[in-house]
Every structure is written in structure tokens, then in C-alpha cells.
Write a structure and sequence with these properties.
The chain has helices spanning about 5, 25-35, 50-55, 60-80, 95-105, 110-125, 145-155, 155-160, 165-180, 205-220, and strands at about 15-20, 40, 85-90, 135-140, 185-190. The chain is an alpha/beta fold and about 220 residues long. A five-stranded parallel β-sheet has the order 2-3-1-4-5, sandwiched between helices. The two termini are about 30 Å apart. It binds adenosine-5'-diphosphate and the ligand Nc1ncnc2c1ncn2[C@H]1C[C@H](O)[C@@H](COP(=O)(O)O)O1. Adenosine-5'-diphosphate binds near residues 19 and 195. This is Deoxynucleoside kinase.
Length: about 220
């Protein structure tokens, strides 16, 4: 019996993985899609025409980058629901506004008028009854020390040249954001509690918890 059926996870589920840069979202997306036989929806980092420029000059490019991410993630959201679900998504659309756009606005690297334009676009696209929310958001949590190690280990040049204070602020914002997030059910995982890289079988207890959370959420809806 496959793990999806064993833990009673509906084949049309959409599960999104959230968490700060470097915490392990892409790795988790791959592990869960393989174990559940679900499709993946990834952020396209290398093909992003603004990301490098953004890291060199936040003031100049933060609005362009947010609009780009919003469009890309909205298209992905549409694609996942047009397929009828069965997806693991690497990062949710909610983090774009709740973490990144807000952080740059509050740091002063996105102007108030740009932020207002971005927010009204986001609200019109996402904060409507027609927007399909994921069945579950898995929040990956870890210490800032472990996350900085992982950012270094992955070695993306644009992230290496970014001051550590940027990642520290983001980490703190994520902790506050997840405490108030309520657009869909949340399963929190601490990165010290699993090791899907050296032990593939450690994905099974995670899938068991996913099944439990999705069932609970469906019971609450009834
Ligand atoms: N469970 C894990 N154990 C050890 N290293 C991990 C684990 N998950 C991810 N990593 C490593 O951490 C780095 C960042 O992971 P990644 O999945 O790309 O993070 P994200 O998508 O959240 O930015 C990569 O080098 C990856 O190999
Ligand atoms: N909405 C965003 N604004 C700014 N930067 C963003 C946004 N979404 C993702 N990013 C950046 C952060 C990382 O450098 C890459 C990929 O994210 P990762 O967490 O490694 O998957 O894009």
C-alpha cells in the first residue's frame, strides 16, 4: 500500500510548504512529492529576471520583484487547481505579502505608494472567496544558526553577499507571522525532528501527521 492511501490523504490535496529562506522547503517538497506521488510546484529561482538585481539594490527592484512573484505564484495556484490538486508547493503565496513585501515596506526599501499598489493587487487576486486555499500549510521551523548554516551550504551568490541581519530579521518575522496565520490549517515541523536527506524513511511519520491534520480540518469543516 502506498503512503498516501495508508494515511488516508486525499489524492486531490494541495499542500504548501512555508518557512524562511534556506530552512529546507525545496528538499521537503521533493521528499513529499516522491512519497505521495504528487506533482510539484517550485519557485523558479534561476529564471527569475529580478532576483539578482533585487539583492544588489532593494530600493530599485523590490516592487518589480514582488509583482513578478505574485504573478508567478498566482499562475501556479491556478495550474494546481486546474489539474484537480495532488500537489506539493514550495512556498505559499501568503509569504510574499505577509513576510517579504511587508518587510521591505517597513524597512523603507519599498515606497508606501508601491506597497499600497502591491497590496491592492494582492487583495484583489487572493483575498476573495474565489481563491482556492491549500488544504494544509506545513511550516518548517529551525534555529537561526541552523538556517544560516544551510544558506551558506547552498551557496547562492546573491544570498551570501546579503548581510546576516537581513536573515535574522526575516526569521523573527516568520515566527510572528505564523502565530497569526489562519488562511488554512497549519502543521508545524521543527527541522531537528526529521532528517529526510540521510534517512528517507523519516518522511513516513511526517506523512502520518499530514493525514491526521487534513482529516481533522475536514471534520471541522463539516
Ligand atoms: N533535512 C535536511 N537536513 C540537512 N540539510 C538539509 C535538509 N533540508 C535541506 N537541507 C539543506 O539546506 C539547504 C537549503 O535547503 P532548501 O531545501 O534549498 O531550502 P529552501 O527551499 O527552504 O530555501 C540545502 O543545501 C539543503 O541540502
Ligand atoms: N516575495 C519575495 N520577495 C523577495 N524575495 C523572495 C520572495 N520570494 C522568494 N524570495 C527569494 C528568497 C530566496 O533568495 C529565493 C528563493 O527562496 P527560497 O526560500 O530559497 O525557496 O527567492
Amino acid at each position: 500500500m502506498n503512503l498516501r492511501a495508508k494515511y488516508d490523504i486525499p489524492a486531490n490535496s494541495v499542500i504548501t510548504i512555508a518557512g524562511t529562506v534556506g530552512v529546507g522547503k525545496s528538499t521537503m517538497t521533493n521528499a513529499l512529492s516522491k512519497a505521495l506521488n504528487f506533482r510539484t510546484s517550485f519557485e523558479k529561482v534561476d529564471a527569475n529576471p529580478y532576483l539578482d538585481k533585487f539583492y544588489s539594490d532593494f530600493d530599485r527592484w523590490s516592487f518589480h520583484l514582488q509583482v513578478y512573484f505574485l504573478a508567478e505564484r498566482f499562475k501556479e495556484q491556478k495550474r494546481m487547481f486546474e489539474y484537480g490538486g495532488g500537489f506539493i508547493q514550495d512556498r505559499s503565496i501568503y509569504e510574499d505579502t505577509g513576510i517579504f513585501a511587508r518587510m521591505h515596506y517597513e524597512k523603507g526599501t519599498m515606497s508606501p505608494v508601491d506597497y499600497e499598489t502591491y497590496r491592492s493587487l494582492f487583495d484583489a487576486m487572493v483575498m476573495t472567496p474565489y481563491f482556492p486555499h491549500p488544504d494544509l500549510l506545513i511550516y518548517l521551523d529551525g534555529s537561526i544558526g541552523d538556517i544560516l548554516d544551510r544558506i551558506r551550504l547552498r551557496g547562492r551568490a546573491m544570498e551570501q553577499q546579503t548581510p546576516i541581519a537581513y536573515w535574522e530579521e526575516m526569521h523573527e518575522r516568520y515566527e510572528n507571522w505564523i502565530d497569526t496565520f489562519n488562511a488554512c490549517p497549519v502543521l508545524r515541523l521543527n527541522i531537528n525532528d526529521y532528517d529526510i536527506i540521510s534517512d528517507e524513511s523519516s518522511v513516513e511519520p511526517i506523512i502520518e501527521r499530514i493525514g491526521y491534520f487534513i482529516r481533522q480540518a475536514h471534520l471541522l469543516k463539516k
